[in-house]
Design brief:
The chain has 170 residues and is an alpha+beta fold. It contains six helices and four strands. 54% of the residues lie in helices and 11% in strands.
């Protein structure tokens, strides 16, 4: 459909900017962590905020007030989970996956690759992207809690203290 009514267009023109500024205020009030991609829960909240904003913009069935409350609840839930996971290890393990060691001292860890459902090719791609040309020059490749791959070359490994929270790296 190309056009319904002028009242629909007017609603978008009025509710759209109000919704946008509401999201900005909610994000400013809730802090930088709300949009961080630190773990799967953070990603879900980010996607949910965008989906909620789109619904407020375009759905006649959702008022601006209902949408603003939904945005605030999402931010509050995210903040609550962030506080719980930062203070209680049990909550951290319930909401976030730990880092996984995929390669150690140039050797692939096949069990970890299978568990993470990754291939050697994907690990090699991460190594190449980091500017390292040989697996033997890599101290570790870690699948981080946000799904990214961190590559630590032997030259940069130092005392390996950055790996202290990675099981199997000790």
């Amino acid at each position: 459909m190309w056009f319904d009514t002028w009242s629909d267009v007017l609603r978008v023109l009025l509710v759209g900017p109000a919704s946008y500024f509401t999201v900005v205020l909610v994000l400013r009030a809730s802090g930088k962590r709300t949009l961080a991609k630190l773990n799967a829960f953070d990603l879900v909240v980010t996607v949910a905020l965008g989906s909620t904003l789109a619904t407020i913009f375009l759905s006649k069935d959702v008022s601006w007030t209902e949408g603003a409350v939904a945005l605030a609840i999402l931010a509050l839930l995210q903040m609550t989970v962030a506080v719980l996971t930062s203070r209680f290890p049990v909550a951290r393990s319930a909401f976030t996956a730990g880092p996984t060691l995929l390669l150690l001292d140039g050797e692939m860890r096949d069990d970890a690759l299978r568990s993470a459902r990754l291939t050697e090719t994907e690990v090699c791609q991460a190594v190449r992207s980091s500017g390292v040309g040989a697996l033997s020059a890599v101290a570790a490749v870690v699948l981080e809690t946000d799904g990214s791959l961190s590559v630590i070359s032997r030259d940069q490994a130092g005392d390996r203290s950055a790996l202290k929270d990675v099981p199997a790296a000790r």
